[in-house]
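[Primary structure, fold]
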Amino acid sequence: MRRYSEAVQTDVRKRMSPPHRQSVAQISQELGIHQATLYNWRKLWRLQGDVVPASEKDPDSWSAADKFTVVLESAGFNATELSSYCRERGLFAEQVDRWRQTAQDANAVLTMAEQRDLEKRHQQDQKEIKALKQDLRRKEKALAVYSA
């Protein structure tokens, strides 16, 4: 198995990362590195927390994991640092803000009033299910008597 230097791997990582976002096939063809090797490197970099999108897709089409990684990396940045970060990766600050809001909304916690309302609706649903089951049993008995 052929070994590649850190410089080559760094170059490949830069090509895969925003704003370049070159595809694995394109990098493989240009550098003569087998695609399986490139996919393994990309997987390793993702596990290390780097933003390495799967393709040349627009950032809004990235996977949730890649978007969340960007949100985590930029969490403590002020406006200037965020702008610089976005320029390096071919992003817009508005995209990162939208992704951050989506992540926060996904982790929203129900208030006590909402929890009580949810429990009340659940109890009502359970009562309705019980009544429907009783009605179904009654009709099945009547049908059995009628068909016999």
User: Anything to note?
Assistant: The chain has seven helices and no strands. The chain has a mean pLDDT of 84. The helical segments are 6-16, 24-31, 35-47, 64-73, 79-89, 93-106, 112-147. Residues 112-147 form the longest helix (36 residues).
